[in-house]
Amino acid sequence: MITQATILDSPQLPLKMLILDAARKLFAEHGYAQVSMRKLATTIGYSPTTIYHHFKDKKELFLCLTEETYRDFLQAINEILSVSKSPKGALKDILYTFVTMGLENPNAYRVGFMMETDMWNAGNSHFEQNPLGKTMYERIKSCVKKCMPPNSSDEDILVTSNSVIAAAHGLTSLLVTYPHFEWGPVAKLKKQVIDSAVDAIV
Hints:
The chain is mostly helical. It is 70% helix and 0% strand.
């Protein structure tokens, strides 16, 4: 994934990648509703017709961006799980990585996890309906389950999973939205928020 790219200064990039990078930046800065295929075409210096050769509409373009983000996160989760020695250690590493990747790729994070679109109104959110997004969530939920007593109810597992995800997402969203706020050392803040959430699992 190439993030924060200066689109017009990168003529060597394939056209589809130029379109995706420009769209990611536009969505992150202006929101889904304010971005049109014509506006995107103007940004990269091509006609709207050229973009339609690659994406049938704005929705397909947006979903392609979210899928790219979810794939990156899922790959990171799978790598952590493949070498982890304890469920709690793995869960902390996953959540640390979640925050770190969000901060390193703020536009991708906004688009993948913070963006309101007309897809929500149809009860068909881009995260909930995406297979990669679902798999990400299930990987984390499975890890949480392993941290809990064997007799834990499905409801307790669900609530606990959502609570640790909320801790990581809430922190990431704040850091992405207010990057210049006096947060203190981010590494220390990240550790305190995530460790507190995970260590509270009993």
